[in-house]
Structure formats: structure tokens, C-alpha cells
Known about the structure:
Elements: H1 2-17, H2 30-33, H3 43-57
Amino acid sequence: MKKLIKNSLLTILILSATGCVSIGVEPWQRDLLAKDEMSLSGGLDAAVDDHIYFSKEASSGGRSFGGGGCGCN
């Protein structure tokens, strides 16, 4: 009886762990996932970050560089 319970629990565990294996993004769903609303960095948050980096670096596109506009790192 113990072995039957152990095997059934193991079977349930294996089936539940592999339940999401076949889930993927279909081609007709990719246009929805490519929208700005679905990005990890939100639009307002990215705009505020761009403003901070623009003000700090005194140029646009300073997001990928370290250090400040004053010469300090």
C-alpha cells in the first residue's frame, strides 16, 4: 500500500512538472508580445530613466555608460 501511494505521488509530481513543456508563443501571438506595453521596462519608467541619464551625461544616449557628467565614476 505504501509503495502504491509513493508511486502515485511520484507520477502526479512528474506529470505536473511536465505540464507546461509544450506551451510556447504561437506566430499569431508574437505581435501582441512585441507591443511597448508588454516590455519589461515600462514606458513611463523608461522615460524618467532617459531624462535622468540625459541630465547626468549632458547628451542623449548616455544610458549604457557608467559615471557622471561631472567626471566622477
